[in-house]
Amino acid sequence: MSEVVVMGAKCVCTMGQIPADLKITSQQTVVSDGKPVGTISDSGSQVNVGPFGMCTSLANPQVAAATAAALGVLTPQPCVPMPAGTWIPTQPKILVGGQPVLCSDCKMMCAYAGSISIVMPGQFKVTAG
User: Fold this and answer.
1) Where are the strands (E) in the chain, listed by range?
2) How far apart are CA 111 and CA 2, in angstroms?
3) How many CB atoms within 10 Å of residue 36?
4) Distances (CA, A) of 71 to 22, 25, 59, 60, 75
5) Maximum Cα interatomic distance, the chain, rounded to a whole number of Å
6) pLDDT tens per residue, the chain (129 residues)?
7) Are 119 and 18 within 8 A, CB to CB?
């Protein structure tokens, strides 16, 4: 069973170093525990998904340039998430505002070769499925 994700959830990237807050902006009508429920479209860089500290992916041009300048020694650079699409829905039949609900087991790819996932859904009372 996966939990419904709400405002204040935490997510991580496999190429980042710290968790980031997830902001829900796709809708404000449906709430759980007094917080807006997320949808798969809550996937915008800096709007919904914050930075993950330092990025370690060589697919990130800043990391690649810094690593080349350091003669091949991996040199992490500040993370600016680059979501490659929306969250992949795991409960596509449960809709919020006409869009699939964002659940704790949803994943999203970053254009810089990372995988973004939810580590804390923001609440634990409502389950999906």
Assistant:
1) 2-3, 10-13, 20-21, 31-32, 35-36, 54-55, 77-78, 95-96, 99-100, 107-109, 115-120, 127-128
2) 26
3) 21
4) 36, 42, 17, 17, 10
5) 52
6) 689 999 999 999 999 999 999 999 999 999 988 999 999 999 999 999 999 999 999 999 999 999 999 999 999 999 999 999 999 999 999 999 999 999 999 999 999 999 999 999 998 665 666
7) no
CB 128 within 8 A of CB 5: no
Q: Choose which CATH entry (2.30.29, 2.60.40, 2.60.200, 3.30.70) describes domain 1-53+79-122.
A: 2.60.200
